[in-house]
Amino acid sequence: MSEKAKTDRVKTLIWDKKSLRLIDQRKLPFKGIYANCRTAEDVASAIKDMVVRGAPAIGVAAAYGAALAALKYRGSNKDEFIRFVLNKIDLISATRPTAVNLFWSMKKMRKVISDNKNLSIDKIREKLIKEAGLIERQDYAINRRIGENGAKIFVKSKKKLKIFTHCNAGALATSGYGTALGVIRSLHEYGKVANVIVDETRPYLQGARLTAWELYQEGISFFIVTDNMSGYFMARGEVDIVIVGADRVAANGDTANKIGTLSLSILAKYYKIPFYIAAPVSTIDLQTKSGKDIPIEYRGADEIRTIFGEKIIPDYMPVSNPAFDVTPNENITAIITEKGVIYSPCRKNIKKLFIDFKISS
Q1: Given 42, 139, 227, 247, which residue is catalytic?
Q2: Burial 128-145 (b: 16+ CB within 10 A, else e)
Q3: What are the pLDDT digits (tens) for 211-261?
Q4: Annotation marks residue 247 as catalytic
Q5: pLDDT tens, position by position, 141-182
């Protein structure tokens, strides 16, 4: 793969009707290698080990994992087939606890089975595969609408924007285009981006490795900073807006996102810088009342102890590695979705959006 290949030519995932190929995000930006998933177990491992990451991308990959389970069943007993696929759906669901898109996707696949349990095995299998493809196509279309809705907030601005972003909420975190980076892409199309500041996003460096790589392919002006430099640039007036993605939004607007997002929101609030979340409606979890109810994933110590396989902290020193933190709704200017922009009061306006668009919770 050419280093200068356009991001829109790079597929986060490729379904070939018998396997799911996932670009290995652990290897970017230096290598463009695809991992081949032939079973639901392969997909579960890819999600857990962060071969694929980003809440929407995880949801799409998980759906194809369920489809692979249906393809791999070789028996003729329908009840056994249904139990087999549901068991694999449970396996995939257990991979990462914070990103709600995973559970939304698996709920859809369970519904396909429930709604079609009177059909033959072959027909149920076909419908599961079709649903996974639909989830992928819808995700891309949703990202484009998020980008456009976000751009509309700023298109009348006379000046170009200096934007700060965290982690990776781009094409690589979705089936294409991106959420937070989708808004940035749309703003770039309108000629409204002066520069993007990308923080490294320790400990997994998704900003430095993935977001910067995507911006480079698109020809969008950017530079990389370490995570602890954000306040410096905000204090100097070099940030007009902050825009990030989300892994789960509670009913009151509290938002879980990659660790470090909370700190950015506090700094942005102090310096009176607008702070935006960009996420699909599927990321909003009405069953979770507030941020304190969002489960936070803790990952292995080696992600902190090592960088690219090089140990920087000895084993005898304890570390703690929460993968996400929760930004309170009062720190968020607005949540940009494919259905519109949700302003404060978040709880009231989230509920209104679900009612207006007749969205199932």
Answers
A1: 247
A2: bbebbbebbeebbebbbb
A3: 999 999 999 999 999 999 999 999 999 999 999 999 999 999 999 999 999
A4: yes
A5: 999 999 999 999 999 888 999 999 999 999 999 999 999 999
Give the SS3 label for residue 164.
strand
CATH number for position 263: 3.40.50.10470
Q: Domain with 118 in it: what CATH number?
A: 1.20.120.420
Structure-token pair, residue 65? 């994992």
Map 112-143 to HEC letters.
HHHHCCCCCHHHHHHHHHHHHHHHHHHHHHHH
* Structural domain ending residue among the three candidates 95, 125, 141: 141
Contact 27, 50 (CB under 8 A): no
305-312 CB contacts, 8 Å cutoff, 24+ apart: 307/205
Question: What is the full DSSP assignment across 312-326?
Answer: -S-TTS----BSEEE
Judgement on whether residues 264 and 207 belong to the same structural domain of the protein: yes
Q: What is the residue range of 46's domain?
A: 7-141
Pick from 277, 286, 272, 273: nearest CA to 353:
286
Taking alpha carbons only, the member of 182, 186, 208 closest to residue 197 is 208
- Region of 113 on the Ramachandran plot (φ > 0 left; ψ -120 to 50 alpha; else beta): alpha
For residue 346 the two structure tokens come to 């978040």
295 within a domain of the structure (yes/no): yes
Indicate the pTM of the whole model: 0.92
Q: What is the mean pLDDT of residues 99-103?
A: 91
Question: Are residues 22 and 51 in contact, defined by beta-carbon separation less than 8 angstroms?
Answer: yes
pLDDT grade for 8, boundaries at 50, 70 and 90: low
Query: Which residue in 102, 190, 183 sits closest to 143, CA to CA?
Result: 183
Query: Tokens 């789960």 belong to which residue?
Result: 248
Please, which pLDDT band fits residue 2 given cuts at 50, 70 and 90? Answer: very low
